Amino acid sequence: MNAPVIVVGAGLAGLSCAIKLHRAGRAVRVFEASDAVGGMLRTDIVGGFRLDRGFQVLQTAYPEARAMLDYDALELAPFDSGAVSRFRGRFRPIDDPFRHPSRALRTLTSGVIRFRDIWSTLRLRAESCRPSLEALLTSDHDTTAHTLDALGFSEPYRQAFLEPFYRGVLLEPDLVTSSRFLRFTFRQFATGAVALPRDGIQAIPAQLAAHLPAGVVGLDRAVEDITPTGVRLVSGEHHEASAVVVATDAETARRWHPELPRPTWSPVGTVSFSAERAATPGPRLILAGDRDGPVNHVCFPSEVQASYAPAGKTLVQASILGPLDGADEDWFERVRQQLHGWWGDEVDGWVPLRVERTPRAVPLQDPDWLTPATRPVRLGPGRFVAGGHRETSSIGGALRSGRRAAEAVLAE
């Protein structure tokens, strides 16, 4: 009997690969170093609150996600399309007129948008939505900042909305990410919803793992080395393999395949509080248009999904771009100081829950990193790789890379 295909890592890419192989009739084993599936997509219960590790959302327009996930079973709840910006000392609503035409007048009178911004948005929408996905990911590209310049957006609209919004999407403060990824994400926002699963973001990999037979995924089974005939675990066990797919983050994959490119990581942090109510009610993102402190944006996830907080409580999450050096207590205080200027004494009653540090949130996807945007998944006979670093670093990119790796294994 042939040895199984071994997949290293039970994140989205590894699970996608394993499902494709299993459905094709191939024996497969998945070894995961941590205590649960999901990779970056993890949810913890803290004091009755569901805390995703980092600010995590599902863009429902991802083609691979639509193909692989049962959205109804996830019980998704969407964010409003748009945001509220704290800009020049006031909260200013900015809504997508295509989704919320009744709010168009409110957006136009917010004091941040000019008529030229409407035309520039329509142009960006056309450039992002009309081409095929393959054409979009092979188009000429520059940095996001230079592309926003070229599109001619007004300075108030950029400062209040575009820059803080895309800093939060791209997870980097200088907007040096490739315009390929800018247009890729704009396409998802324009054609789908941004949502949270009822049971937290980890419900996504948990649903995928349920498609595999019991015993296929081994947790707390860290791989020490890849041998000529299989893999050796940290425990000393050796497992024969007909092929090995490394489905980890880019840095971990380089342990066994040093020829892979070395990423520059974008670190981020999330500071969570318990509150009695949402200071700005509704399923909306609150942007720091004034850049008046370390927080880039604030979200009340329990306004989107009530299951994220116990009855009578509200979950507050503030996202910070960059490393969070220093003690947790210092970060709770720094966030409170900034947000006190937004909502006043109400912030003083918020109860600290957790400071989550993610030093390797995503690789910096600048033009060099996304040239090409779709990388090979076969490295040699019996050796394959999958992960967001083979595509765009996104839920859709991870799932797509796993499928491509499985197809390459089957072809070999």
Major beta sheet summary: 7 strands, mixed
The unreliable regions are none
User: Which quaternary structure do these chains form?
Assistant: single chain
CATH level-two architecture of the largest domain? 3-Layer(bba) Sandwich
Strand order of the largest sheet: 8-7-16-17-18-15-19
Briefly note the CATH topology name of the largest domain: FAD/NAD(P)-binding domain
What's the number of helices?
14
- Whole-angstrom Rg: 22 Å
- Count of beta strands: 21
- The structural class is alpha+beta
Beginning-to-end CA distance, first to last residue: 17 Å
CATH class division of the largest domain: Alpha Beta
Q: DSSP strand (E) fraction?
A: 15-25%
Q: Please identify which CATH superfamily of the largest domain we are dealing with.
A: FAD/NAD(P)-binding domain
Overall number of structural domains: 3
Average pLDDT, rounded to a whole number, is 95
So what's the overall shape? globular
What percent of the residues sit in helical stretches (DSSP H or I)? 25-40%
